[in-house]
Amino acid sequence: MTQHARPRLTLLTEEQIQQVHGYALRILAETGVRVDSDSIRGLLQRKWGIRVDDRLVRIPAEVTEAALGSAPKRIDIYDRRGNPAFQLGEDRLRFGVGVTALYYQEPVHDKLELFTRRHMQDMVRLGSRLPLYDVISTVGIVRDVPEELSDFYGSLEMLVNTTKPLVLLVSDESNFPPVLDMFEKLHGDLGAKPFILPYFNPVSPLVMNAGTTDKMEAAIARGLPIVFSNYSMAGASTPLTPAGTLSLLLAELLAGLVISQTIRPGAPILLGMLPVYFDMKSMLNFYDPQSVLISLACAEMMAHYGIPHCSTSGSGTGWGMDLVASDTYWMNTLALNLTQSGLAPFIGDSHGSKSISPCTVVHVHEIIDQARRFASGFQLDDPAAALEEIAKVGAGGSFLSSPSTLKHYKTGYYNSRVYPRWTMEKWQAEGEPPAWHVLREKTRAFLDDASAPDDHDDLLARGSEWIQALKGG
Questions:
Q1: How far apart are the first and last CA of the chain?
Q2: The pTM is what?
Q3: CA 318 – CA 96 distance, rounded (Å)
Q4: ∠ CA 436-162-272 to the nearest 5 degrees?
Q5: In angstroms, rounded to a whole number, what is the distance separating the alpha carbons of residues 102 and 140?
Q6: Which CATH number, 1.25.40.10, 3.40.50.970, 3.20.20.480, 3.50.50.60, labels domain 69-375?
Q7: Alpha carbons 122 and 127: distance in angstroms, whole number
Q8: Taking 70 as the threshold, does the pLDDT of residue 139 lie above it?
């Protein structure tokens, strides 16, 4: 019988899970959430008989429990061509490229440039080229087109430059339904085999803003699974204590769950947190080791609920692909691979999420590879123990030509796609390049090698014509 030894990381006991759940229920029932949409407040009143004071909605515990019982435990995701991609809820942790950046950090000199359509094209193709990225999230805000057309051209570049699933963020709320209209015009029915996951945020603390809930309604009406994720700035929009941030953010997520199941029972939804801290001295947000702990706690709460989880990627820290960013990405990626998690959609950003770097995307791809290898453990059974080989080789022998070595030497240990395994002498012979130089050269090679899908030109032409007809752009 094949056995595996696998590392596991847990944070909360069953008693603590119930304790955190109780805190969130108490916040919803006693403090309540502000719901700005008239139509959503009306739905909540008609469906559950909830009393509304002005815009404040207090959600009874039994309503939250009913919503938890209604949401699906697994969500099937497809690629743009209708092929099964992965299943959220029971599958392994999945990663994505993106951040909605304002700037692009070019890979040669790390200079910042305004994010353009060309950058969107290159980053989407790069994420599509690297196999360990399962989704492409909205990479940036396109800034070389009229502002009112940015969502349309940015979303179009995502659609035409990859066939991987898309995590969609639309900055102008009024543009969200017509962006989906454009996708339906180019692709057809979006809900039959969904490859688009719209991403929505409430406003912390405890505000379900009308733009978010209206977009939720539009997505759910088309049969799309949605991501409902909140963003904390501990010490500003949430309490400074991890327990306080966790409880408040969890209450917001459960409020979003209630709204989704009120719009349509059984609507597929992912829930997650981006728990960052706020430095009052520098006025910057940042990831702390306890941010990772809060993410782990959220993953365990979602596993308890049976709700697919959307996680932080530990991104946003540093000034590009530097030592600071590497520390944060390593900690977050490894920790979340050791727990129960579903989707980490935002990799590549820096400068407080204002910029995105292709070098970061490439380097973190290496981190993901190694973290998954660590989390997968190793086989522990009689064949893997190779007792017969050990007996045959004996004391003082060599395993260089043994059957297990010959069978596994290409896959039995980690081999980097980026960094060569050089001896000191080889490194000296190559001119003693620093590792960042190797990363930049490999990133440029990946960008040059990242091609578009074969239907790129047709979709781009039809999409551009649709945008021009809609907006006169």
A1: 64
A2: 0.96
A3: 19
A4: 75
A5: 6
A6: 3.20.20.480
A7: 9
A8: yes
| CB-neighbour burial class of residue 280 (10 A; exposed 0-12, middle 13-18, buried 19+) | exposed
pLDDT at 473 over 80: no
Nearest alpha carbon to residue 313 among 331, 290, 338: 331
Cα 230 versus chain centre, distance: 13
**Domain ranges within the chain, ordered by starting residue:** 69-375, 381-408
Residue 356's beta-bridge partner residues?
104, 349
Q: Which amino acid does the sequence have at 216?
A: M
Are 187 and 179 in contact, with CB atoms under 8 Å apart?
no
CB neighbour list of residue 52: distance below 8 Å, 6 or more residues apart? 35, 41, 44, 45
Contact, 55 vs 35, CB < 8 A?
yes
Please say whether the beta carbons of 310 and 345 come within 8 A: yes
CB crowding 400-413: b at 16 or more within 10 Å, else e: eebebeeeeeeeee
Beta-carbon contacts of 131 under 8 Å, excluding residues fewer than 6 positions away, are none
What's the distance, CA 357 to chain centroid? 16
Residues 410-448 have pLDDT tens digits of: 788 889 999 999 999 999 999 999 999 999 999 999 999
